[in-house]
Amino acid sequence: MSVFEQLNKRLSDLAAEARRSLVRITSGRGRQQGSGSGTIWHSDGLIVTNAHVVQRGALRVALHDGRELTGKLIAADEQLDLAAISIEASNLPTVALGDSRRLKAGASVCAMGFPYGLESGLTFGVVIGSGAKLPELPANGREWLALSLHLRPGHSGGMLLDASGKLVGVNTMITSLDVGFAIPMHVVKRFLKARLGITEVPRTTESVTYV
Description:
By secondary structure, the protein is of the alpha+beta class. It is built from 3 helices and 14 strands. The strands form 2 sheets. The protein has a 7-stranded antiparallel sheet. The protein has a 6-stranded antiparallel beta barrel with strand order 8-9-10-13-12-11. Strand 1 (22-27) and strand 2 (34-42) form a beta hairpin.
């Protein structure tokens, strides 16, 4: 087996394992319905996603095993575009957490979600840069991971994995065809610690394209 084949198999195996912790989130009803992705954070039903994914209400969460459950919004921060929801379930599979601060430009990453409704679609790319001062974004103090990969509508709230298959970010938006952005894992951890229990999701006003 060639080095390329070994790498391909390794990445495929990592993605298959992480996919068990990926969920599809449907928000709203009828013509107002939208969908995105989320990641199981705790085995007792805590899920992390984007605030813009859940802002239509009436949440439904589809699990990898085929179950579809009602979701309850328990925390949100529109400025960070992060939200936490809960479902009535236990013993759910979780993904290992990585260190987003250790990612360097050129590091390989994999984004997972449900682009255009496709089942557990994934895309590979590399990190462009990280931090609060990045091109194509306003200087508002928010920290980002800038990525060279193809995010699509439905990737929002899904996983960004590093080369070892660990969760390092939450997919959020695109600013051009080949440039996507994710929220770093240390920002997600800070949000959960500080805002768990806040349920209001204000409307976004940023001039970006969410995925």
